[in-house]
Design brief:
Helix content: 10-25%
Structural class: alpha/beta
Radius of gyration: 18 Å
Number of domains: 1
Shape: globular
Number of strands: 12
Distance between the termini: 46 Å
Number of helices: 4
Strand order of the largest sheet: 1-3-5-6-10-11-9
Strand content: 15-25%
Order of helices and strands: EEEEEHEEEEHEHHEE
Length: 251
């Protein structure tokens, strides 16, 4: 790095060019960073190995002044990708995720989003709700995280009707895949229980042993931005199952 530059850098744009060969970025010389953007490019379709640090957030010795992180092009947006986020960015305020897939908290897989046309353009949640439940668990140690933006493509052809506005989103969609909603939401008792848990409630004695949604302590806003990808070249839709669990609890 050029002498004198490190002390003036406030924003950094990093590109992950090859997951299996990329070293960890050591940012100890950048003492005054406030924002980091990380792009996965090319968007490797290899299934991740979460024991490899390059398959998680590949940073070390990041200044505590970093309060905003943007991650684009993450091929497999499993919560395990972010398992080290609270160690690297303990004072994070804003998180922006632009990804090709959604994480379904019901089947624990990454899959493409499909809604019945026309799909939603934007879904906004206030007061801490709106994250996939496992994301909320993973981000729970981020004491200052107040805003999360998640941008995804909608490839269409799904059976789920979802539009902006509370009356069109009574089940508080938060990344559930179209197949799970089509099949599992047919069971009214299960659906009502799942929605209650996403609100942080246990609606039956049976549910009391299951994890409920607990937002990061400062979270105020979750905004899903959905762009219409119908007719676009589709991704390889192979799903990635991570068997994500927290303290052995059933999710």
């Amino acid at each position: 790095m050029f002498p004198g530059v490190a002390g003036r850098v406030r924003e950094l744009h990093c590109v992950q060019t090859e997951t299996r060969k990329t070293s960890i970025w050591d940012l100890r010389s950048l003492k005054h960073l406030s924002k980091i953007r990380l792009d996965w490019h090319p968007r490797s379709m290899l299934l991740p190995r979460y024991t490899d640090r390059a398959d998680r957030l590949p940073f070390a010795h990041v200044a505590s002044s970093v309060i905003e992180l943007e991650v684009r092009g993450l091929p497999w947006p499993s919560p395990l990708t972010f398992c080290n986020i609270h160690h690297i960015f303990p004072d994070l305020n804003v998180l922006r995720l632009q990804q090709e897939r959604i994480w379904c908290g019901l089947c624990h897989t990454c899959s493409v989003a499909r809604f019945r046309s026309p799909g939603p353009g934007k879904i906004v949640y206030e007061a801490g709700v709106g994250l996939p439940m496992h994301y909320a668990q993973t981000f729970s140690a981020l004491q200052r995280l107040h805003t999360v933006f998640i941008t995804i493509p909608d490839f269409g052809g799904g059976s789920t009707t979802l539009k902006e506005g509370g009356e069109f989103n009574k089940y508080l969609w938060a990344g559930e895949c179209d197949r799970c909603m089509e099949v599992m939401y047919e069971d009214d008792a299960f659906r009502d229980s799942w929605v209650a848990r996403k609100k942080g409630l246990s609606c039956t004695d049976k549910d009391s042993a299951k994890a409920v949604y607990v937002p990061p302590p400062a979270l105020k806003r979750v905004e899903w931005r959905v762009w219409n990808a119908e007719g676009s070249e589709e991704l390889d839709v192979q799903e990635s199952e991570d068997e994500f669990s927290v303290s052995g609890e059933e999710s």
